[in-house]
Design goal:
It is found in: Golgi apparatus membrane. About 70% of the residues lie in helices and about 0% in strands. The chain has about 325 residues and is mainly alpha-helical. α5 packs antiparallel against α7. It is globular, with a radius of gyration of 22 Å. The relative contact order is 0.19.
Length: about 325
């Protein structure tokens, strides 16, 4: 006689699995927020006389290389290495080159935009990528969002703007005129570049999510394809640059290697989110990380937090409630 246990929605085993899954997601997202939030403070701690002592482009290459090696090791340990015995079809691999190209384009846009606006204006306007990602997510992936979810994303974008605005050093206008200090400014071409940057950023996230979910391949193998192109494109950009006066590994310290390890881990965790979650979750991770960034900067760098800091914190919390509840 075969006894079939109760596996209904109220089954204790099912409830236990749901709670374990929630805890796993909570740990994953919490770790991502911590790594994202610690990135800027760690870079600040590496500075020598106000300057970054290492070559940023080489750091990006090392991060991509670390992700590639970890993906390869994971693939071998999971027993899926036979997939590497034969060259994969070009049709299967080619889509993974697009995210690498888009992210490389975005990295160059960030540098280019600085010539047409001040850094503070860029910091505030770059929050528009939340809106562009949400629109592309809805249009390209066919995900219809409820009005409350659109409102939540509006709060999320507002939280980013408020947090960016609270960190602006507006100073004294009269003193700025007499001392000719840098002032907030943006040109029409700069505004156009910001819009392009936000669209490319959203498109890169949405396209990566679509590729990861559309192909029934092990995630470690998909990551391997992604980071092969990432290493190739960023490596080409790094070694073709003649403007840098620093050698490839010059200025690397323990903090720099910690940055590389953290960003490599974050990239791999983000692929899990895009594969099994959504790009919108990525936006919440980034928004929460800016608050962690401020707290870490206060604790380690002596950043002064104003009461206005509670406004973006409240807006992120409200946005999460409206979107997921």
């Amino acid at each position: 006689m075969i006894v079939i246990q109760n596996v209904g929605t109220s089954s204790p085993a099912r409830i236990r699995r749901q709670w374990v899954k929630r805890i796993q997601w909570g740990v994953l997202l919490g770790l991502m927020v911590l790594i994202y939030g610690s990135h800027a403070p760690l870079i600040t701690l590496t500075k020598v006389e106000g300057q970054v002592p290492f070559n940023p482009s080489s750091c990006v290459v090392m991060i991509e290389l670390a992700k590639l090696l970890i993906s390869l090791v994971t693939l071998v340990l999971s027993g899926a290495s036979p997939a590497l015995r034969a060259p994969p079809p070009l049709v299967l691999v080619a889509p993974y080159a697009v995210p690498a190209i888009l992210y490389a384009l975005n990295n160059n846009l960030v540098v280019l935009m600085q010539a047409y606006m001040d850094p503070s204006s860029y910091q505030v306007l770059s929050n528009l990528k939340i809106a562009s990602t949400a629109l592309l997510y809805s249009v390209c992936l066919g995900k219809r969002l409820r009005p409350a979810q659109w409102l939540a994303l509006g709060f999320l974008m507002g939280a980013g703007v408020c947090h960016s605005y609270s960190s602006l050093d507006l100073g004294d206008p009269e003193r700025a005129d007499t001392e000719k200090a840098p002032r907030l400014h943006i040109t029409a071409w700069g505004l156009f570049l910001v819009l392009v940057y936000c669209c490319v950023s959203g498109l890169a996230a949405v396209y990566t999510e679509r590729v990861l979910k559309s192909q029934k391949l092990p995630l470690s193998l998909q990551n391997l394809y992604l980071y092969v192109f990432g290493v190739a494109i960023n490596g080409l950009a790094s070694f073709s640059s003649v403007a840098s006066e620093k050698s490839f590994l010059e200025g690397y310290s323990g903090a720099v290697w910690l940055i590389i390890a953290g960003q490599a881990a974050n990239g791999l965790l983000m692929s899990v989110v895009l594969k099994h979650g959504s790009g919108i979750t990525r936006l919440f991770v980034i928004s929460c990380s800016m608050l962690v960034n401020a707290l870490l900067s206060w604790a380690t760098l002596g950043l002064q937090l104003s009461p206005f800091f509670l406004v973006p914190v409240s807006m992120v919390g409200l946005a999460a409630y409206l979107y997921y509840i």
